[in-house]
Amino acid sequence: MSVIITVFALVFLGEFISWIGQSVLLEGAYALYLRIFYPTLASRQKSLKSEILTTKAELLKTSAQDQFAKWAKLRRSVDKGLADLEKLNGEMASLRTSFSVKFNTAIWLGTTGMQFFVGWWYRKEPMFYLPPGWFGPLAWILAFPFAPKGSVSVGMWQMVSRRSIKVGERIVKEFASSALAPKEPVGNPPVKASTASAKSKKDS
To answer: Which residue spans belong to the Lumenal compartment (predicted)?
Structure first.
């Protein structure tokens, strides 16, 4: 029974990651990674950008002819800040690329890779046996490729689990969309023409 649950859990995990989006998980994991292992890097980038913008704004207000010494000092500060920011951006881009490769590899190994491994390791093991005669001569399909006849193989169980999860996901999405859909306002029922005409004659 534990193998059945393990296979279903692996398939569910893969479908859950696909549903959320691997790029979304990558962004969240990378932000957490920076906060834990490089807490000053992101704050340094943010403060450096703020300093450059402030110095640039002051530079634009300074006349190069009337206040050349101040203008030149601000210009050098902006150039140095841009160079430092470019270096820091390159360092963070390299860090992000390295983290992205490791993260995607871990996701693949933890989902698809583990499914392949479990499918190969238990390729001859029956997940469970079906009652005799349920599927007749077609029972060998459920045991494909190496499980005993009359049983459900790990590969077939993976397919059934994935299909069931997708159907469940579709049902949940349809239910959520119908529940969140705006309801039409309930107005007064329209007055029939005959009723309105009769009422006007009575008044007259």
So the answer is: 1-3
